[in-house]
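Propose amino acids for all 424 sites.
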């Protein structure tokens, strides 16, 4: 089962947020977060060499404080738990790893494509795609929900926004798995912890698959440059730079890669976790089936519950006090959004999956940061349409085997969710 109640407490000495193995367990991460929020909310987490350790920020209020203060807590270092030489940073910096005016200029290139209004234009396409995906999967009776439903859906949406052929979506999924799954032996070309990964230290997520994504993106860019397309690639390569900030080839590479991985894995796992939660809480599923108008509000609870991104990273630009600790300039500071999403100071009964929950101030997309998820409106729409289409099609659904999780303390991912359905 997934979490139906607050997990059992864990001694502080047993907490290790740097150990990816612990994140293949459905409960252990939450137990670690609970212990930290209670006993040591800004916790120094050592890491094996060559890493230097990081501050784990686990309470909602502290996370928001850091997220709102990009001057003290910069993103211009790496957002995942790897170390890269300063002189290599420039070649692999996407907007996620940029601050200030440069970040604004990069973000502005695609901001208008991701407003609630802009993404609403994809509503009919999304509904058609969801219906096709679900009809094909449900006809099978027993299937892996991740492979048949959750994995294809977000990437097909991105394929449309990037205007890449539908036939390439499998390839995009494979790249996403290999890049984000850099700590999972099922996916990684080279495990992040291995000595061999040193060879790829200047690539995003130290993944050689990044080179394939770069090559693919460049080919698209070359075809679209100078054209009149309105897809995301055309928007990136054909806009006049603003504020004197031009988009270099490396900027494009990293932007393209970010779009491929950011909007793919995250939404996939949000959908899978929601399906699991609904199976574990049939009374909540019944409420939504009886009254689909509850779904838009429920999506916020889906997102809080799923917390597909465990953390993002910042670096302190000066000495600063946080939660009674002295953080030093240059220290790595990690915001555990997932932990904030179970903070009892903010959420009443945080381990209750409650589709009618109000005042759902979750941190799933960040909070108050200039890096707040660019794709949040799209992700919300995808989630809403997925469950508006799925729930009326189901007379019953049950889990038929073990839930397999991605080995990663970065992405809270589900690899396999075997189900059996009775179509309505
Ligand atoms: C940034 C989560 C879906 C594109 C972020 C951040 C989070 C996040 C937590 C903030 C990173 C930080 O603070 O450093 C999620 C979750 C999603 C999701 C949980 C699904 C449920 C999407 C989608 C897209 C997308 C569908 C579309 C392509 C981005 C981009 C950024 C970002 C481009 C970087 C923004 C910036 O640095 O200014 N996302 N995301 N995300 N997300 Fe999402």
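Proposal:
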């Amino acid at each position: 089962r997934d979490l139906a109640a607050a997990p059992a407490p864990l001694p502080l000495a047993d907490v290790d947020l740097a150990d990816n193995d612990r994140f293949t367990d459905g409960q252990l991460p939450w137990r670690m977060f609970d212990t930290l929020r209670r006993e040591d909310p800004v916790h120094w987490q050592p890491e094996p060499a060559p890493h230097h350790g990081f501050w784990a920020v686990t309470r909602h209020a502290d996370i928001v404080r850091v997220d709102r203060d990009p001057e003290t807590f910069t993103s211009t270092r790496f957002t995942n738990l790897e170390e890269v030489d300063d002189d290599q940073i420039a070649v692999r910096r996407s907007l996620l790893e940029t601050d200030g005016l440069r970040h604004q200029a990069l973000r502005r290139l695609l901001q208008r494509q991701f407003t609630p209004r802009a993404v609403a234009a994809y509503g009919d396409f999304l509904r058609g795609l969801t219906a096709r995906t679900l009809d094909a999967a449900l006809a099978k009776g027993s299937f892996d929900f991740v492979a048949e439903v959750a994995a294809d859906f977000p990437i097909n949406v991105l394929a449309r926004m990037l205007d890449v052929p539908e036939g390439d979506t499998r390839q995009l999924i494979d790249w996403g798995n290999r890049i984000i799954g850099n700590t999972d032996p099922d996916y990684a070309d080279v495990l992040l912890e291995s000595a061999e990964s040193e060879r790829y230290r200047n690539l995003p997520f130290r993944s050689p698959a990044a080179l394939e994504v770069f090559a693919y993106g460049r080919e698209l860019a070359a075809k679209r440059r100078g054209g009149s397309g309105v897809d995301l690639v055309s928007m990136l390569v054909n806009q006049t730079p603003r504020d004197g900030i031009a988009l270099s080839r490396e900027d494009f590479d990293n932007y393209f890669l970010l779009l491929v991985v950011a909007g793919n894995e995250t939404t996939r796992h949000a959908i899978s976790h929601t399906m699991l939660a609904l199976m574990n809480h049939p009374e909540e599923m019944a409420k939504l089936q009886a009254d689909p108008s509850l779904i838009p509000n429920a999506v916020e609870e889906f997102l809080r519950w799923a917390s597909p991104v465990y953390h993002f990273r910042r670096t302190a630009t000066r000495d600063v006090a946080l939660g009674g600790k002295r953080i030093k300039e240059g220290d790595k500071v990690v915001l555990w959004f997932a932990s904030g999403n179970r903070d009892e100071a903010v959420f009443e009964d945080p381990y209750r999956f409650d589709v009618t929950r109000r005042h759902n101030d979750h941190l799933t997309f960040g909070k108050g940061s200039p890096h707040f998820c660019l794709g949040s409106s799209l992700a919300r729409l995808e989630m809403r349409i997925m469950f508006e289409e799925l729930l009326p099609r189901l007379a019953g659904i049950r889990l038929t085997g073990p839930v397999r999780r991605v080995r990663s303390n970065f992405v809270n991912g589900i690899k396999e969710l075997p189900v059996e359905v009775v179509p309505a």
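The radius of gyration is 21 Å. Residues 75, 79, 95-96, 107, 258-259, 262-263, 266-267, 270, 308-309, 312, 337, 364-366, 369, 371, 373-375, 378-379 surround protoporphyrin IX containing FE (CB under 6 Å).
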